[in-house]
Amino acid sequence: MPELELLPESNLRNMAAKTLSSHRKADPCILVIFGGAGDLTKRKLVPALCNLAEQGFLPQQFALVVVSYTELTTDSLRERFAADMKKFALRPVNPSIATRLIGHTYYVRGEFGEAATYGNLKAALSDIAQQDNIPSNHFYYLAVAPRFFGEIVKQLGAAGLAQEKNGQWRRVVIEKPFGHDLESARALNAEIKQVLDERQIYRIDHYLGKETVQNLMMFRFGNGIFEPIWNRRYIDHVQITASETVGVEQRGGYYDTSGALRDMVPNHLFQLVSLTGMEPPISFDANAVRDEQAKVLHAIQPFTPEDVLTKTVRGQYAAGTMDGKQVPAYRDEINVNASSSTETFVAMKLLIDNWRWADIPFYLRTGKHLARRVTEIAIQFKRAPFHLFRNTPVDTLRSNRLVITIQPEESISLRFGAKVPGPIMQQGAVDMCFNYADYFGSAPSTGYERLLYDCMIGDATLFQRADMVEAGWSVITPVLDVWQALEPRDFPNYAVGTWGPKEADELLARNGREWRPMAAAQAAA
Ligand code: BG6
Q1: Is 239 close to ligand 1, i.e. is its CB under 6 Å away?
Q2: Over the stretch 320-361, which tens digit does the pLDDT of each residue have?
């Protein structure tokens, strides 16, 4: 076979743009955003639609309908969107695209629980379909408080807005949190499945919109050299970190009923666990990929009450200074209970009971107001089996480590030992590093572009299936139960700007391991 030619970097940079024209065109459709007058729409969804339109991914026949109880009209919504686009789009929006998008935006005012809202929506959709000449493919995006998920789906069903007929599709995108424990997630799945078929449901997890997360599959299964060592024989353990420098900001009300465990683990972190741990799927079909992800989640060893005490750690931040600014304690945040037991940090040790991963720990940690913003997967390999250099200054051999950084940079680096130049044998740790921006440029993206596009082409690979959501909750529900029964006695137990409570270090130290050392934040991180 001939050697593949090395693509010049500028060609790589142009590749993303070029593939678009040859890619599958999205179906003409109407996007209906419930709760579309809120933050998610202006900060993420509208900027993502602008990016898709700029790149030629948005169908020409496209309209946006916002349903909300806010006092607005189509005209005032359009004015608002025009201003939001200037403020929140990631780059200046081409005026013809802005005019096109805004000109096809409509508003339906109503309460989510009232049948009349859906009657008005139905009439509006039929008018828009005629007037803008769009076939009736609808996707409904539920950017609303979780208590409305079931109700909206039920009302869509009752109004005949969820039924697919004459080849016209109906899809429902549901934001997180999908339930607050196993029982509520099961109940919600059962409720929405009375109206919708599983293939119509797109449970969104915005982590799957991140390029480097998607690249995990390409990295593992598009290369021949990694998969043979991707197992318990060569890997010592895996560390997954999603640390944030921000606190709970304006979301105290939500966060105090959720906490770090519910907010980040069964969804975002378990996506990373399953993509790291899964077997190669038999195809790139949505269900083939998700079957393998689900198997990993099902194989996570259940936590007994005793495991919860020894394999999980929770923390809550105390007041302090970060970047020279005074930061209040979690309990002093707006809309947070002054004696709250809600955790803002969690670390845990997972074991995956299958042939590939038996006895290989996956350590997870996530939290607010930590030392640095970083999301990464670090694969720590075992040491070389034999110490050849015993009679030299190299007293111990270091192990190799592969780090997949998801944010803020997108990169993959491999650490290995190299001989330090000079007459004596000394080992130094060096990194081979691939940085996305160096090869592909860094077109700003919200992370929602790919997910919205996939909804329009009907590809659910990057969305959570019912069984995956339930598997995630079944792992963490025993932890929630024990934590609820045993009040934390030492909260607040970590200072802002650190890596969390000392127990998180002890969790690894008990097995003779440590978290990968990382420098603290640069001011803007
Ligand atoms: C959200 C959580 O799902 O993810 C937030 O509710 C968290 O609390 C956010 O801050 C993190 O996302 P990202 O993309 O900034 O890592």
Answers
A1: no
A2: 999 899 999 999 999 999 999 999 999 999 999 999 999 999
Note down the domain range covering 300.
208-445+465-509
**Token pair recorded at residue 194:** 């009375």
pLDDT band, residue 316 (cuts 50/70/90) = very high
Q: CA-to-CA distance for 335 and 256, rounded, in angstroms?
A: 8
- One domain for residues 160 and 291: no
pLDDT per position as a tens digit, 222-237: 999 999 999 999 999 9
Give the CATH number, domain containing residue 41.
Answer: 3.40.50.720
Exposure of 48 in the CB half-sphere (CA atoms within 13 A)? 20
Q: Per the structure block, which two tokens stand in for 493?
A: 């137990």
**What local confidence, expressed as pLDDT, does residue 523 receive?**
41
Residues 350, 261 contacting (CB under 8 angstroms): no
Helix (H) or strand (E) holding 412: strand 411-419
Q: Are residues 52 and 94 in the same domain?
A: yes
Q: Are strands 494-495 and 29-34 parallel, antiparallel or unpaired?
A: unpaired
The DSSP annotation for 448-502 comes to -HHHHHHHHHT--TTSB-HHHHHHHHHHHHHHHHHHHHS--SS-S-EETTBSS-H
Rounded Cα distance between 102 and 105, Å, is 5
Count, in order, helices (H) and strands (E) of the chain. 17, 18
Q: 240 forms bridges with which residues in the sheet?
A: 364, 377
Q: The tokens of 132 are what? A: 């803008």
- Ligand 1 atom 15 nearest Cα: 244
Q: In this structure, which residue's CA is closest to atom 10 in ligand 1? A: 244
Query: Is there an atom of ligand 1 within 6 Å of 263 CB?
Result: yes
- Does the annotation count 268 as an active-site position? yes
In 3D, which of 66, 44, 63 has the Cα closest to residue 104?
63
Closest-lying ligand 1 atom to the alpha carbon of residue 267: 3
For the chain, state the CA radius of gyration.
25
